[in-house]
Amino acid sequence: MKEKFAVIFDMDGVIIDSNPYHKEAWLQFAEKYNVELKEEEVPEKIFGKTNTTALRDVFQKEFSPEENFKMGEEKEAIYRELHGKEMVPITGFREFIQMLKDNGIPMAVATNAPVSNVDFIMEKTGLRHYFDVVIDASSVKHGKPDPEIYLKSAEKLGVPSQHCIVMEDSVPGAEAGIRAGMKVVAITTSHSKEELNHTDLVIDGYEELSMEKLISLFD
């Protein structure tokens, strides 16, 4: 591929394996409010969704914007308390983004997470300087699976959407990337290969990726 391409990363489950901590935080949060939430329901009801959508699906009711923000931050405070004690990127991630940086590939983070979590994770991991653009849930009107956040990332990077690769772990996130007209590489931190096999490439770890493999996605 002669044209410049870019790589856009989701955050939870792609940069850090945070979903086990999010799962536990949601279970504790639901228990506090006496709402039934089974562990096996968490991936479908929560992973890859905004807090507004997850709260609606867990509580089976609509909340006001003020309630969504307050309850979302309450849940995220539980998550940060659980995960703050040990925060490292997924194995091979640092080496992967260093390879991209060495090859001059523009990079962005596009996540349904609130800005409080983005700041928390970027500070804990020290990764922010790798990314040209960081977009969180507060920057878009529609969360994934709507493609808005990926289209906005491409626009800010100055790269056409068809020349972007999305790194995702969730079904809603993968759908957002596909709907944005981008190539989608899915990592199996949150879902099985079978659940993600509608993407362009499914990997178990970053050691499976190389510049040649990324370029071949556009062939």
Summarize the structure in words.
The chain is α/β, with parallel strands linked by helices. The chain folds into 2 domains: 6-17 and 88-216, 3-Layer(aba) Sandwich (Rossmann fold), CATH 3.40.50.1000; 19-83, Putative phosphatase, domain 2 (DNA polymerase, domain 1). It is 42% helix and 11% strand. It is built from 9 helices and 6 strands, in the order E-H-H-H-H-H-E-H-E-H-E-H-E-E-H. The chain has a 6-stranded parallel β-sheet, with helices on both faces. The longest helix is centred in the middle third of the chain and has 19 residues, at 65-83. The N and C termini lie close together (8 Å). InterPro entries: B-phosphoglucomutase_hydrolase, Beta-PGM-like, HAD-like_sf, HAD-SF_hydro_IA, HAD_2, HAD_sf, PGP-like_dom2. Its cofactor is Mg(2+). Its EC number is 5.4.2.6. It is an enzyme of class 5 (isomerase).
